Amino acid sequence: MSNKKYVKGIEELDMNIQLPVVTKDEFPQEAPALDYFNDNLQKEDTSRRDFLKVMGFSISAAALAASCKIPVKKAIPYTFKPEAVTPGKASYYASTFFDGREFGSILVKTREGRPIKVDGNPESPLTKGGSTSAMQASVLSLYDFHRFKSPMINGEAATWDTADADVKAALNGAGRKVLLTSSIISPSLKKTIQGLADKYNVEHVTYDAMSVSAMITANEKSFGHKAIPSYKLENADVIVSFAADFLCGWLDHITMNQGYVANRKINPENPTLSKHYQVESNMSLSGANADVRVPVKPSQQKAALFQLYNLLAGKVGGSAISGVPSEDLSNGELERMADDLVAARGKSVVLCGAHDEESQLVTNAINAMLGNIGSTIDFNRTLNTRQGVDEDFIQLVNDLNSGSVSTLLTYNANPAYNSPLAEEFATGAGKATVISFDCQPNETNALASHILPDNHYLESWGDAEPYSGSFSFQQPAIQPLFDTRQFGDSLLALADSEQSFYDVLQEEWAGKADWDEVIRNGFMHQAAVPAVSVSAGNATVSGISYSAPAVSGVELVLFEDKMGAGEHARNPYMQELPDPVSKVTWGNCAYVSSKYAKELGLFKDRNIKPGKKNHHVVRVTANGKSIELPLVVQPGVPTGVVAIPVGYGRTIEGLTGNETGESGFKLAAANGAGFSYTGTATVEGTGKMTRVAQTQLHHTIDDDRPVVKEATLADYKEKRNAGNYEKDVSEAYRKLVEDISLYPDRDFPGHHWGMNIDLNSCTGCGACVVSCNIENNIPIVGKEEVANGREMHWLRIDRYYATDIDGDKELENPSVVFMPMMCQMCDNAPCENVCPVNATNHSSEGLNQMAYNRCIGTRYCANNCPYKVRRFNWFDYWGADSWGPKNDHMHGKKEHVSEAMRNDLTRMILNPDVTVRSRGVIEKCSFCVQRIQEQKLDAKINGVAMDPSAIKTACQSACPTNAIVFGDMNNPDSELSKLNAEKRMYHVLEETHVLPSVSYMTKITNSAIAPFDKLDEGHFSEEHISHDKGHGGDHGDDHGDSHGADAAHGADHSSTEEHDNGH
Amino acid sequence: MAQFESPVREPLITGHKTYKQITDDIATPTEGRPPLIWMVCFAVSLALLTVGVISIGWTIYKGIGSWGLNKTIGWAWDITNFVWWVGIGHAGTLISAILLLFRQKWRTAVNRAAEAMTIFAVMCAGLFPLIHMGRIWDAMFIFPYPNTRGPLWPNFNSPLLWDVFAISTYLTVSVLFWYSGLIPDVATLRDRAKGKFRKAAYNLLSFGWTGTAKQWQRFEYLSLVLAGLATPLVLSVHTIVSFDFATSVIKGWHTTIFPPYFVAGAIFSGFAMVLTLMLVTRHVFKLKDYITLGHIESMNKVILLTGSIVGVAYLTELFMAIYSGERYETWAFLGNRISGPYAWAYWIMMSCNVISPQIFWFKGARRNVMITFIMSLFINVGMWFERFVIIVTSLFQDYIPSSWSYYWPTPVEWGIYIGTFGLFFTLFFLFARTLPVIAMAEVKSILRTSGDQYREKTLDKVKEEPVYTEVGVGELSKK
Amino acid sequence: MDTKKVLVGMFDDDAVFLKAIKAIRSEGIRIDDAFMPFPVHGFEEALGMKESKLHVGGFWMGLFGCLFALSFIFYVTNISWPINWGGKPSNSILAWIPITFEVTVLSAAVSMFFAFIIRNTLFPGKKPIVIDERLTDHMFAITFDMAKMDDSDVNEVKGLLEKNGAIELKEAETEASKLLALR
Question: B293 in a domain, yes or no?
Fold first, then answer.
């Protein structure tokens, strides 16, 4: 090659290619990718070459469009390739997720500059790669076109200069100025707030929806620390929880799940299991996972807790609480609880979720008495995500109403929706100038005259200290999409600071940490934190005596489910994620027991028809306010209790539209000291019927199908295959099986992908479902379609109820098993054989694969799938269809959620590695084949052998408890092969000989008897289900007809009596 | 080949017909202005067809989501209607082909209409596999044509592909069989035709048939060979349709009894449909001399036989479900069919298909036109429910309880189903107005052996000596 | 269309018609053709016709269809693109039987039908030479090729026809096609 330079034109000689200077914000303004967001190309600094390129492209695109009728709408040419962006290659950024309630160290996956996936940061010592459904779903909120796109003054778009000037004027004005925020865990932001507070004399009030205020104040009284300790469930052999749903968002979802499951995994060498008691009034996720669940009314919770205290005091020695009723509320479980707790002193923990200081004080006394402080309860690292104290907020509302506050600044707090004082707050706020810094519209900032919108968290810098001494760092993964400004920057601008928030961060960490390193890692963990002295001396019950709560009639329980306090209620992924236990999507319901529904005369005996209006609408009234909700029978809810999840019924428009239930917060009360989420209610029928979008309906199965398998720890200790059948692993047997088949088995000489799911580790939280949705571009279908039985989830978590109580037709206290179910990748796949056009077939690595473009949609494969995991695109959910805009209105409704998902901005969430399926094709779990291929390609490029253990499927990487293991079955050393060799391993519907590649592990529980453990005991007979725990005298009247199909017994929930293996 | 024809048998053609009268009787309905009743019926059929066209258009425009299916139940009315229509179609072929091979002369009165019915029914049936596809515009993927995708071929293991071959072969062979039989009759109409347009039209359709000896000889060979091919074909088609279910893993589908049971069911429902139509045609077109009570009774006997076969099949399924002890099988039959949410469908099927046809053990009922008509409707309903029961009750609560669901049709599905009636009757009414509904040539060929006037003559003679007559159209009288 | 002149004897009864044919043929007179509204029983023997070979063609085409289907499916599943469908072996002949059968029947039936119309010189829109319109209704006819008869022959035939029950005699043009010739 010569050194000659070839030029096409004179311009090129002169051209001075300048790479964009990488500035601190990493995303150069010139990056052409951002053209996308500029409506007007001319505003850009466009060179003549760019112009020619764009014109050339446009002409050919137009020609293409004209000839092939393929609409080419937008194109993003890389005129200058940004640093660190390789087209087709994902970049990952460590960052931090915190929505005011849930925290997580995350890895943000970006493709071509846009974040498309959020996963747990596996290296973070705090969350160890775990994630939550809300965290997984949060990436969509970045692309929510309802976000504030610029500063707003009285609903009109404004410039930052005017907005700032106005706000400064307000801050300089007379009267009190208050900043109302959710819990702030960022040290730098706290400092910045302090800066503003100092300048303008602003008071800072922290408000948490569903706060743990009572715990904070009780801890101050008992231990001298006004804080929440960290709970080390991994150290606890006995866990007793009083209405604390620690597996679903109570305090800290991820670490609680991880700590809990650490003691639930079965080591076949030395099997141990923690024992989990749950005393509660609704059917929570934690209750569903408990070994022993004690359903009590809310008014009895306190009595039960005090009884436990007295029992313990009697055993350990201590002063008893007076006035505690002697009535046995738990069929003797409290007694057993006390025995277990005493036996595991120092290795146990009692949790209490009551919004009641007395209960918390007694809980503290119990934990102190058992010596749990310092072992399972750690005040050295306090949890900072819950700082709000109800009294402060109540005081603020009073002050607002008295007119003494002139300016109210709000950030990430939505009391106008989720506080019991929402109405009072709104009235009071009307008397002040309200200024909001929120990123998205909500009920509170709807009251604001000025909005200085924050960036989305994926566009922001920050730091976080969720537990004292443990830090997590936040970096933007994308340039702000809109004309927004980070909250910290806004505060600094208002304080007339020269600094940016980034400067504040660097200043904060200068000398403490290597900035580049912590940003790259995303966390900084101080291995040793200064020990905090805790004196448990005050953790006593002195001054406490039992007084019965004043309730009459029906009792109300408001609780948090996956939707929390409604932070993500406008995220369609969260709405479509079924509630783990009730399987209700898109909105909340009033949950009652079947007995109570019958008492009301509103019992619908056959809830087996999806899409039918088969639920009564009831009006629940409490505290003078009422809401109308569908009545849903939920096994496990005590009779006489109506349980309502909060977090639904947001009134501000979002991607979800407005069909999202009613706000349970309306029924909450605030007494002088704090918020109350229980109380007396009335329930009355409205005469209306509605349909509830449930992904799982109620059915009876009276036969013995081994879908989920369960055994008790005691049985497992005796026999490693307890609950499972005895596997014959001999060579002779293997040969026999091979010979029985008409056809020889196919070989998988290279890799043979498989998966193992541990039913013991799965708590049913649903993070995997959302992760799968986002990774695989699974469409959201909306309430109507879910109600029609057409949700598209490739991965679902099946919930099975079981009861070991003879005659418990009402299923008053069932045990629950969760079973993640996805494509089982059968080697003898029944679906493949029947496809007429070869759209689904088997890969040489054992994958059951789909060629979407070949599929003509006969649905034969879906019919022939014994696991029913195939999903059909009934409509054009993603707008992927070549039929184009003609097909836009799915149900003739423009506001339908799938319409929102077809928006250009929302579609930025799509994973480019996964085909977006058009209408009329079948889709299903692919074992994240794109991730397998990515590993293969990387190995190829690097010239090394592929490491199959580096492949993590989306569900696996999301799971906080590592219940899912993916791997190569051909490699005997893989984690998967080792698990598959265990005697707990089984395949679902193994007898159909479809040879699934997904295996499950028998669930081992620590209860006295597992209802599913009768596999080897012959056929169903009365004796096997006669372990009567004495739940009332209401059973035993009609077991005679238990073999008739459900027509005979009729009751939809009686139905769920599933004797799943064995008889 | 001689055949003893008992002269005491009742005549198949009554009214002392001559050849000329036969031609006149059968050809007249195709000539002149259509009667009012025909116009009304045709208008109604066209209206129903319009409903169907709109519903199908809607389905294709909006997606299969406009039906009542869901993640668990991927087939319901679509395939139910498909199997039902195919089953109805089978009677035509059976009457024409099998009865021809079995030398049943009574078939000559009904075979033309039955064959036409076959074709129209198969057209209605064929519609469903097409429109039930999510992407009908890619339907050509199902054919093995050379392509640039590899070439990628269809899956020859898939029963659905077998179906494609079976249904298209069946339709083709039925059309050929029917049309080749029509050629001489159309020539008759041509030669009777008065108007110029009429003449030209029938000339076009008659292919220039003149009825020479060689033409008739080849005609008989063709009929016989096509009948010989169509007989195993008709059995194979419903066998293959049953393979759609029998080769699957779904309990209630996965049953080795399906092929014979489906074939019997097809004959059963097909004969019922033929009866329904012929009883009406017989009445409207005044063809009582050709479609006699003897014909009706013969068909009712077939219905009784096949209905009983179907009944035995139902009971066998139940027995196997209990006897096998296989939990999913037991559930599918005991939990989902005889009881459970869809028990009503099962019991409609049972009462219409098994219980009510038992009335045909009585000769009086067999020869009663009204009872026969009502029973034929019952059987049509019952056989529709048989397919519905097989498809939906097997799917809606299968292996994994978490996915259990329920199905109910939408107005669009109703519209399509109604529309197939529109298509069927529109074609049938057009056929009845334009082509001879009874095979004239064939009826004429049996007049001498089965006409009442000849029968009476031989009856007189038989007192002296038994008479051997030679029979039959389309038979090779090889010596 | 080639035509020929024929002498036509018309009958109105099939029994008489058959008897006449036998009688005339026993006189050693060559009948050119016979026309019937339906295949009168026994006309082949009466006319001394040879067996048609239509079905032989059908058989060979059916065999071809069968072998073609089998070899094509074998090619597709084992050579062109072997695919693993549900763990079944590529060479699973049992699964090919239905399609092979259908293709066999289809090729036999279609080829037979086309052989039928081609051999009978039938095609849509063909303008036939109709000797008498009643021949597709209720009359039967025997024809004799005028070209092969001299006047005395004609008279003899006429006489025989009348003797054997012909109700009408006439001369007409008819199609002269080898394919339709009585053999």
Answer: yes
- The full set of domains in chain C, from first to last, is 3-51+128-177 (3.30.70.260), 54-119 (no CATH)
Residue B118 maps to a domain? yes
Measure in Å the smallest separation between the Cα of B15 and chain A Cα atoms. 54
CATH of the domain at B263: 1.20.1630.10
CATH number of A213-383: 3.40.228.10
Contact flag B191-C130 (C-beta cutoff 8 Å): yes
Judge: B250–A864 Cβ closer than 8 Å, yes or no: yes
| The two three-digit tokens of residue A666, written as one number | 């309306």
Residue B145 touches partner C, C-beta closer than 8 Å: no
A841 with C83: Cβ contact below 8 A: yes
Under the banding of pLDDT at 50, 70 and 90, the label for residue B458 is low
Could you report the predicted ipTM of this complex, rounded to two decimals? 0.88
How does pLDDT run across A756-782, given as a tens digit for each residue? 999 999 999 999 999 999 999 998 888
- Residue B432 reports pLDDT greater than 90: no
Enumerate residues 6+ apart whose C-beta is below 8 A from A351: A231, A239, A240, A241, A242, A244, A246, A250, A363
CB contact under 8 A, C35 and B212: yes
- For every residue of A295-344, DSSP letters joined together read E--HHHHHHHHHHHHHHHHHHH--PPPBT-----SSTTHHHHHHHHHHHT
Cβ of residue A693 closer than 8 Å to a chain B Cβ:
no
Q: How far is B346 from chain A (nearest CA, A)?
A: 14
pLDDT in tens, C160-181: 888 888 888 888 888 877 777 7
Fold of A710-1005: Alpha-Beta Plaits (3.30.70)
pLDDT tens for each residue of A72-95: 555 556 666 666 677 788 889 999
Interface chains of chain B (3 or more CB pairs under 8 Å)? A, C
Q: Is residue B8 part of a domain?
A: no
Contacts of C87 in chain A (CB under 8 A): 743, 745-746, 826-829, 842, 995
SS3 content of chain A, % helix, strand, coil (to 5): 30, 20, 50
Beta strands in B106-213 (DSSP E): none
Contact: A745, C87; criterion CB under 8 Å: yes
Question: Which helix (H) or strand (E) element contains residue A557?
Answer: strand A554-559
d(CA B54, CA B462): 63
Query: Is the pLDDT assigned to residue A978 strictly greater than 80?
Result: yes
A872/B64 touch (CB, cutoff 8 Å), yes or no: yes
Q: pLDDT tens digits, residue range A31-71?
A: 444 444 444 444 445 555 655 565 665 555 555 544 444 44
pTM: 0.86
Domain count, chain B: 1
Find residues 748-787 of chain A whose CB sits inside 8 Å of chain B.
785
Looking at domain A554-690, which CATH architecture does it have? Beta Barrel (2.40)
Question: According to the model, what pLDDT value does residue A936 have?
Answer: 92
CB A478 within 8 A of CB A113: yes
